[in-house]
């Protein structure tokens, strides 16, 4: 199982901040994981419609959407950060 | 001493500075960010990525400590709902001499703005809206936790 | 608001910062200089030129206020006899945005070191000695009150 | 009468921080004023022996030792400042 975290506008669009999911083997990159997540519900589809405004972290480390997923405990998806 | 706090309660400036000065420095620099209300903002909500935020702030503080041989580096960041006039962030650096303290303080607040996972939502006229990232900020943000 | 204090008593950081924050800024930067005791200094005496000191500090604060559009600039300088660990100077600047507050704070403490008529005497091992001017400081000091 | 102020090591060498004096007309520059002050006592002479380490202000404004004296209310003489 993979813990998927959503923050800010992504969290609001999906309606929850955290899901425990079991992605298929085809979700081998962050981008492919997002493709799969987008099929889960219309809300997920809407949240991930604009990839240019989507950022990701694997186990707390910022990564590009092209990054290999590996076997992390946690993936976070969110819009660009807007500062402290 | 490195001190990182991410908290929902108010920032106690005097208490934090007493800790910093106790480290025996000759020079202490601080930066305090305060929620501005000048453009009609009634509330500011700050969301963050628990765990990753603290790690990002700690990495920045460690980098600054090594680079400027600091005696101490403190970052206290408030999250949750704030009103105009309230402190949102405090950075304090201590060093034997002034240039190191001042440069490290400026470095920390600059990097913190782009390298830590914070998202701002502003309420104006009763309506809440996420703040859009500026391109310059976002370019810098790709540095976050990468190294 | 420009606030200049030259005083023999301790510097009340919390009270000064409360005044600065009351000016409604988004960004407050401070620098605090603390008497160092690391090289055997037991006492620091600071002599100054009453009247000229305040005028020099006010001129610096006014220059910084204009150059960085500050909301406030505060300089509190202690004179007389101090012990290691005590605050000798506080500079605080407030502006809408962080770069202005930080740059103005660094400018004020740098210029204050050379442009204001202060003389230091250090007591080590019971013996008091005037601190010798470094050439770099003295070159800068010729700017003092000239313009 | 001219108020002459001394600070730091100059004050200590002379033994007072302030004198009210009536310099002669020949004291038309700061440097010439110092020449005259140096004759007032051995302590004055010692205080002003090293001109390279002497600085001056006229009515609270820093000036070079070559500056014309004019008719100020106050002249201050002191070593190079050593910072706040």
Please describe what this structure looks like.
The complex is a heterotetramer, with 2 copies of chain A (84 residues) and 2 copies of chain B (147 residues). Chain A is an alpha+beta fold and 84 residues long. Chain A has 3 helices and 5 strands. The longest helix of chain A has 8 residues, at 30-37. Chain A starts with a strand and ends in a 6-residue tail after the last strand. Chain B is of the alpha+beta class and 147 residues long. Helices cover 35% and strands 35% of the residues of chain B. Chain B has helices at 13-21, 52-68, 98-115, 135-141; strands at 2-7, 27-34, 41-48, 72-78, 80-82, 87-95, 118-124, 127-130. In chain B, the strands form 2 sheets. Chain B has a 4-stranded mixed sheet, with helices on both faces. Chain B has a 4-stranded antiparallel sheet with strand order 5-3-7-8, with no helix packed on it. In chain B, a hairpin with a 2-residue loop joins strand 7 and strand 8. Chain B is elongated, with a radius of gyration of 15 Å. Classes of the chains: A alpha+beta (84), B alpha+beta (147). At the B-C interface, helix 1, strand 2 and helix 3 of B face helix 1, strand 2 and helix 3 of C. Strand 2 (27-34) of chain B pairs antiparallel with strand 2 (27-34) of chain C, so a sheet runs across the interface.
């Amino acid at each position: 199982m993979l813990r998927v975290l959503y923050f800010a506008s992504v969290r609001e669009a999906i309606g929850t901040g955290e899901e425990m999911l079991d992605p298929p083997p085809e979700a081998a990159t962050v981008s492919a994981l997002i493709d799969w997540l987008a099929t889960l519900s219309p809300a997920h589809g809407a949240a991930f419609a604009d990839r240019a405004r989507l950022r990701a972290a694997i186990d707390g480390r910022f990564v590009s959407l092209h990054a290999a997923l590996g076997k992390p405990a946690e993936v976070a998806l969110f819009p660009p950060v807007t500062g402290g | 001493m490195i001190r990182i706090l991410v908290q929902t309660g108010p920032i106690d400036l005097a208490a934090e500075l007493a800790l910093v000065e106790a480290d025996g420095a000759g020079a202490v620099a601080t930066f305090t960010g305060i929620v501005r209300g000048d453009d009609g903002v009634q509330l500011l909500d700050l969301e963050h990525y628990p765990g990753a935020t603290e790690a990002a702030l700690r990495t920045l503080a460690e980098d600054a400590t090594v680079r400027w041989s600091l005696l101490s580096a403190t970052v206290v960041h408030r999250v949750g709902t704030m009103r105009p006039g309230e402190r949102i962030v405090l950075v304090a650096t201590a060093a034997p001499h002034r240039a190191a303290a001042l440069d490290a303080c400026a470095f920390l607040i600059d990097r913190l703005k782009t390298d830590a996972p914070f998202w701002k939502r502003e309420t104006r006229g009763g309506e809440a809206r996420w703040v859009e990232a500026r391109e310059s900020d976002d370019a810098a943000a790709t540095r976050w936790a990468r190294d």
